[in-house]
Amino acid sequence: MSCGHDDHSHPGLTGAALKRALGAAEVRCADTQERLTPPRRRVLELLLEADGPLKAYDLIAAFGEAGEPAKPPTVYRALEFLERLGFAHRIESLNAYVPCRMEGEGHQAAFLICDCCGAAQEFEPDLKPALTAARAAGYDARSVTLEARGFCPACKGG
Amino acid sequence: MSCGHDDHSHPGLTGAALKRALGAAEVRCADTQERLTPPRRRVLELLLEADGPLKAYDLIAAFGEAGEPAKPPTVYRALEFLERLGFAHRIESLNAYVPCRMEGEGHQAAFLICDCCGAAQEFEPDLKPALTAARAAGYDARSVTLEARGFCPACKGG
DNA sequence: ACAGACGTGTTATGAAATAACATAACGCGT
DNA sequence: ACGCGTTATGTTATTTCATAACACGTCTGT
């Protein structure tokens, strides 16, 4: 965090864009018989509004309207749901969460994380070589977590 | 954990093999002006003896000779040192630690993790596609964490 | 209406990691 | 050997992250 630069590649959504994103989530839930209940919707909203990865306790603190925080299970359950449906991803190396920025639904999430400003950009690397190596070792790999640490365009001095 | 199988691909080291591994670590430390002090050596020993990934508090509990646990900072500092020198790796998605099983010193660690028996096998996938994608996005990636979840040969039913 | 599944609210606790500060050991120049 | 800066350890306490357990509600199909 804090390197003098402030170009975060994912400014939070506001107004119409936010509403649109939440609406799209509603639609996808309706399609699959899943329910975007108020706490789930609220947590998704907070993630979408944010400029970068949010910690679970950031969400807990920001959850309530009148400054009332949520209880931890409320937020963790919502995050579990959002992850299950692909609306959000957990970044293991940060213990933090981001809304999904990708279009497709079944993708493998991977992240580029800036050690300077804390930005986390989702990307889709080619994982075939890794999966091939896994199979060569006899493993049946079901999911892959890939997190690359380094410096974002704004922070690397360019 | 626990699927009926018990073929862990990394049985812990014992006796001569353990001594040899610790000796090799001593030598590498001496070469680089680093010190394998007693707590560092003890934590490395515990990791090498183990059959699989160990949690920090497993190490804390197992640390002392007469059943005396260590204090958390003792173990976390040792782990930090061991990671810095490449003697151990942290597995983010498990909050756990393993000794390094690779020969070279500067490699990027990556893991195949069995969701059934908990085994974690280190491997070296080709990360070039991911690094290329990172560069294409303008990122200067310094390190990559890759953890593939699935089933090991013993657990996948083969 | 009823049962079952799913979701939420709440209290409490467990697990993982670090802050802060004091003390000790080492490496080095003199 | 002495003093000094650096590195490592010991210790207390706290912070951060996450889940267990159980009561209550709500939706859905029969």
Tell me what the structure shows.
- The structure is a homodimer of 158-residue chains.
- The first copy, chain A, is an alpha+beta fold and 158 residues long.
- Chain A has one domain: Orthogonal Bundle (Arc Repressor Mutant, subunit A).
- Chain A has five helices and six strands, in the order ααβααββββαβ.
- Chain A has a three-stranded antiparallel sheet with strand order 1-3-2. A three-stranded mixed sheet of chain A has the order 5-4-6.
- In chain A, strand 4 and strand 5 form a beta hairpin.
- In chain A, helix 2 packs across helix 4 and helix 3 crosses helix 4.
- Chain A is globular and about 50 Å long.
- Chain A starts with 14 loop residues before the first helix and ends in a 7-residue tail after the last strand.
- Strand 6 of chain A pairs antiparallel with strand 6 of chain B, so a sheet runs across the interface.
- Chain A binds a DNA duplex (30 and 30 nucleotides) through helix 2 and helix 4.
